[in-house]
Fold this protein.
Amino acid sequence: MADDLMQKIISLCKRRGFVFQSSEIYGGLKSAYDYGPLGVELKRNITNAWWRDMVHSREDVVGLDASIIMHPKVWQASGHLSGFSDPLVDCKVCKERFRADKAPVVEPGADVIIELADKGRAKVALQYIAEQFGVELERSGRQLIGAKAGDRPYVCPNCRSPFMSDERNFNLMFRSFYGPVDPMGALAGAIESGEFDGLKGGELRAKLDGYTKDSTVYLRPETAQAMFVQYSNIQKSMALKVPFGIAQTGKSFRNEITVEHFIFRSCEFEQMEMEFFCEPGTEDEWFEYWKNARMDWWQKFANHPEKFRARPHEQSELAHYAKGCYDVEYEFPWGWDELEGIANRTDYDLKKHMEHSGSKIEYFDPVERKRYTPYVIEPAAGATRGVLTYLCDAYNEEVIETQKGTDTRVVMKFHPQLAPIKVAVLPLVKKLGMPDKAREVVESFMKRGINASFDAQHAIGKRYRRHDEIGTPWCLTIDGQTIEDGTITIRDRDTMEQRRISIEDAVSEIEDLLRTA
Ligand code: GAP
């Protein structure tokens, strides 16, 4: 059922130009996606709404657009170079590679039933487990019975086997080389000249690193660090008083081991993050404030606000520097999953950058005449994950009565402020001056910065359906009466009701509807 819904959404995204697989004509690049004409509008509407509410509607938050490539020392200071890795495990039975921290949890020593894809594979696995691990299991169809969980508190997410490799850590940051000279040239020369002959393991690795380390850079794995690194410049240039925030939206890159659920987890994604700097001692209050503000923000654009929740982290889930964290979770078709993290990061990041850079990163309170390192509350949201959330929230199938009987209408009930196209203008027929009139109306919307679309292809019913499926909130139809009395019909996407309004009022009517939606 959940898979079915995801498949319907993925297929609609492709069919209607929201999201395509990257480089599809070359077989596609795993976990990379392109946002098509409607997807880019939806994504921008989400990030613009975030910017409007987080920056433009407040006096205490300013923006930043930092470079994706930063000084490599940033990642040393932030801990990403040493610690930004996922524990990865290979299942010895079904060969699935998975993240240990995301695998199904079991009690060490508990009974587990291994389940293979078919009987044939179960027979092979039965023999393999007996030979490799000396464990005799019983087979029933495609299931193997009698295994026990090992010391580790998890099993393979694919077949539930407890037979797996050791955990290995993989660096999640994308590495690249800075500068016009490719270090591979020097490296090739060194290999040819025999400089590496006889070297092994750590020694070989260290020698190789020597050739690349000066030009190695990383694509940022989060937008957050630039806000810490530029804290002093921004505070001083804008004469900001604590508490204040720095907000940024933009691309981040992670070599994710498990890429899953369409655009939910991908290697290149977009974030909307804000670092809110406050006086130590006030952080608990701000933490609760931002948790509530962020929950309200996600819910205000949703048809199903009950599908959002703020889940406090267990002590064991907290990052070592965090004093507290809430995950804003959404009930996706596969279950509750993270959309945003709101963390109390204490003064950890500023202090780390102070230590590694040698720069003083503090705040001087001119009224109290005291100096301190601010604490940070960080609401860190996924913009691309937001796109998937609102696609899931909007997707609706309705059985409706038609002249020929019943039919299923697919309608994307996007909040009008997020809808890619706000209004479609449809000439009933391609004659009697109707297309020209429709184009005039479209132009009047464009002049006001409202994304309107002229659509004259196919019968009117089909056009309404097409716009329902892409979530256009209103359709305006130019018909015979328009030419006579200057009125047009306005059709509401959700109720399908139509009423007549004056063509003169069309823009202000839609502006009002958008404002009050
Ligand atoms: N600065 C803190 C930080 O980056 P995070 O929980 O790793 O925290 C914040 O990321 C948000 O970014 C997540 O809640 C999620 O919405 C989004 N995100 C993280 N990794 C992602 C990925 N691989 N694909 C899509 N979105 C991702």
About this structure: The longest helix spans residues 37-56. The first strand starts at residue 19 and ends at 21.
